[in-house]
Structure to design on (468 residues):
């Protein structure tokens, strides 16, 4: 049986095959970049667009020559061809941009700006005159300059180390050099009447594409290994920080205590601790380091160490806070620490309170909620500040709340903070609940206050103490 299908010329068949391959590879790269959604995948995204543009041109032209395409597609091919001619240098520059730094990055941004201007002007001239070759010379000069600069930087190790962010420049240098040599060969052969086979252009571009893709994936892999290492270190830091917090609430004869500690990140700048002296006497410290994350957590660890040195004067809030400030003053640098300290002596029905720039102590007594403020300066401002002490008597039924500002700062969808008013309202509405249930209720109310999509914005620490 004879084959009635028309024979397709070899060059058109090659255009269909190579164009399909490059378009498919480009779309696959774009999908991978879209799924991963990480900043280092931008190179893969631009490579995908570059590959799709490169393949779309010969594919469209070859199909138009051998098949009866719909009118809209035949009309669109010249526009696709024009966009490809002028904007492929812009896309290529974006692909290289993610691998560069310093002045080379500025150079590529300039290439992108000039290329975009030439492209817009070229498309406008095409729409007005029907010619898409009016500004091709300027575009080719821009492409040549960009390639020569990139090849030069890749060829010289000193420039590569200075201007490229690469784990290994070898593969990219080979791919870029092969592509540049192929382009020079084709452009030098044409004036002598020799038209090199199109396969050489495809091979050159494939070499460049694969070298860029390989380099980009090396960077992605290195970043992922670095992130994994950081996550492991943060997990260890979290374990260490957890170990410096009280493992349990102290058991005291006339006090019931509940505490909550919710870090915003893996490690936090909040800190709390107890200094139990005997079943009737205990000190409570709550501290909040400015900032978040590892730096704040390191200072919180320093607060723990400093607290051990002032434990002998636990009965004197002024001495405790002054001693902490003295220990931390030279170590804080540009950071600060707020703190509050409460001393309870149930045998003598006596309470002492002082603070360093911290939110007030709340006391619930006989159906009335009081805000007790006895503040001195934050830690780290001056070497020897004074901290006024507020003295009060303890009665059965008294309730004390110590907390950090993470309790009152969360905002709702309208931008209104949870605030002292809402905090005090929840305390009033749950006056009969035991400390542990009040803690849970407060945290639940804060969670309800914030939109579900909003992440925690600050570390939260809360201690509720009931006198019985």
């Amino acid at each position: 049986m004879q084959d009635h299908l028309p024979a397709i010329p070899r060059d058109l068949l090659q255009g269909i095959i190579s164009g399909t391959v490059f378009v498919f590879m480009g779309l696959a790269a774009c999908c991978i970049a879209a799924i991963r959604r990480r900043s280092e995948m931008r190179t893969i995204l631009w490579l995908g667009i570059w590959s799709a543009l490169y393949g779309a041109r010969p594919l469209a032209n070859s199909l138009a020559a051998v098949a009866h395409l719909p009118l809209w597609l035949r009309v669109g091919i010249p526009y696709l061809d024009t966009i490809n001619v002028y904007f492929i240098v812009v896309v290529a520059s974006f692909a290289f941009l993610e691998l560069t730094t310093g002045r080379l990055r500025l150079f590529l941004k300039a290439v992108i700006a000039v290329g975009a201007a030439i492209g817009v002007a070229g498309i406008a001239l095409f729409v007005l005159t029907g010619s898409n070759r009016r500004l091709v010379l300027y575009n080719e000069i821009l492409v040549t300059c960009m390639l020569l600069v990139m090849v030069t930087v890749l060829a010289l190790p000193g420039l590569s180390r200075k201007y490229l962010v690469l784990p290994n420049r070898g593969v990219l240098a080979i791919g870029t050099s092969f592509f540049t040599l192929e382009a020079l060969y084709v452009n030098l052969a044409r004036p002598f009447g020799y038209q090199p086979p199109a396969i050489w252009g495809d091979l050159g571009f494939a070499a460049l594409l694969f070298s860029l893709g390989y380099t980009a994936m090396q960077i992605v892999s290195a970043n992922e290994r670095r992130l994994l290492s950081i996550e492991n270190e943060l997990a260890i830091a979290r374990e260490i920080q957890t170990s410096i917090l009280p493992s349990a609430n102290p058991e005291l004869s006339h006090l019931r205590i509940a505490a909550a500690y919710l870090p915003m990140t893996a490690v936090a700048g909040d800190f709390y601790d107890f200094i139990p002296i005997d079943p009737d006497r205990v000190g409570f410290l709550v501290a909040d380091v400015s900032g978040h994350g590892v730096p704040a957590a390191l200072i919180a660890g320093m607060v723990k160490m400093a607290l051990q040195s002032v434990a002998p004067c636990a009965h004197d809030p002024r001495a405790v806070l002054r001693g902490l400030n003295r220990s931390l003053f030279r170590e804080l640098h540009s950071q600060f620490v707020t703190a509050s300290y409460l001393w309870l002596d149930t045998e003598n029905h006596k309470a002492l309170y002082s603070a360093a720039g911290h939110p007030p102590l709340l006391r619930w007594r006989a159906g009335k909620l009081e805000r007790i403020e006895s503040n001195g300066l934050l830690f780290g401002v001056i070497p020897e500040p004074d901290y006024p002490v507020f003295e009060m008597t303890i009665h059965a039924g008294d309730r004390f709340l110590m907390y950090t500002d993470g309790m009152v700062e969360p905002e709702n969808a309208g931008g209104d903070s949870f605030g002292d008013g809402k905090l005090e309202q929840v305390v009033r509405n749950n006056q009969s609940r035991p400390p542990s249930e009040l803690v849970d209720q407060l945290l639940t109310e804060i969670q309800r206050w914030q939109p579900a999509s909003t992440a925690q914005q600050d570390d939260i620490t809360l201690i509720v103490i009931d006198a019985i």
About this structure: Confidence is low (pLDDT under 50) at residues 1-5. Residues 15 and 466 are 82 Å apart (CA to CA). Residues 10-231 form a domain with the Rhopdopsin 7-helix transmembrane proteins fold (CATH 1.20.1070).
